[in-house]
Amino acid sequence: MTKNNITPGVGSLPWIAVPAIAFLGIGIELLLASVDFPYAVWAGVIGCVIASCILCYQAYQKPRRDLVSLFTPLFAFLILVIPNEISSGGVIVQTVFAATITFLAVRVEKVFNTPKLQEKTMKQMLNEYIIRLKPLLAVIDEETGHLVAQSLLTYKFGLYANAMEKSTEALARLDAITPRPVTLERALLIFRERAGGFAESRVTANPEHVFTEEDYGDLAIHISDDQIEDSTALDLDNALILLYAVGIETSPEDEQALEEHQRFIIQILESYKEKLAA
Question: Which domain holds residue 142?
């Protein structure tokens, strides 16, 4: 999971300004009414209207928007300004309105002041993973990348024997690369072993090649031991994602073909979605 950090708007007012102005207006109204000032009611109305506008401004400034609070100036106008049966209630209606917008002001401050958590999509995760692999990808030449890409594409089409051949060719080219990309080497060995099993219609129950702890930094899916249901399947999934990343970043010739099959890799990541989120 990830979240957006949104700073409060410049000049935002504290929530206490809403009840302070609303009840101040009502207090002034009561004071003026005590001396029989004919327009005393407007002090309470103006106080509530100004307070509702402040609440609207506060709600607009928050990372998440509360629609009810945004429309309080309209409610204030309809309830308190336009002559009607409700507005004739005077101080009582104004007090209820002031209490209501006070509650909304507190709610906006406590509930809507925190940015909404946004779930990271698997495509975003894949892109971030590829960025994280830059040091490894930097040493892979285009021809090796092409062989890696072809290994994955032939595997995707069920041509497991061809996938084994391409991966063997890619492994041979790693001998000339310094520093040797050992994680990619293990990915190709895992991939070739599993493809060989599929070619012979057998399940690889006790694989010879597996990822080690030193590879975890270059793998897309890294979950705790208690979350692993099938380590053999997990190693293959990590190998497929790594081969995709290498192919699409180092082989321009295969970029379009790999992009067309990106959904295949996304589906692998989605199968671990809950575990990755945990």
Answer: 122-277
How many domains does one find in the chain?
Answer: 2
84 and 166, same domain (yes or no): no
How far are the Cα atoms of 34, 193, 194 from residue 200, in angstroms, in the given order?
98, 11, 10
Q: Is residue 77 part of a domain?
A: yes
- Of 8 and 239, which is predicted with more confidence? 239
Identify whether residues 256 and 190 lie together within a single domain. Answer: yes
Coil vs helix vs strand at 114? coil
List of residues 6+ apart from 117 with CB closer than 8 A: 1, 2, 3
Range with lowest mean pLDDT among 8-22, 118-132, 228-242: 8-22
From start to end of the chain, where are the E strands? 2-3, 117-118
DSSP β-bridge partners for residue 118: 2
H or E stretch covering 166: helix 160-173
Helix (H) or strand (E) holding 110: helix 91-111
Secondary structure of 36-50 as H, E, C letters: CCCCCHHHHHHHHHH
The H helix count followed by the E strand count for the chain is 14, 2
Question: Measured in Å, how far apart are the chain's first and last C-alpha atoms?
Answer: 9
**174-210 pLDDT tens trace:** 989 999 999 999 999 999 999 999 999 888 888 999 9
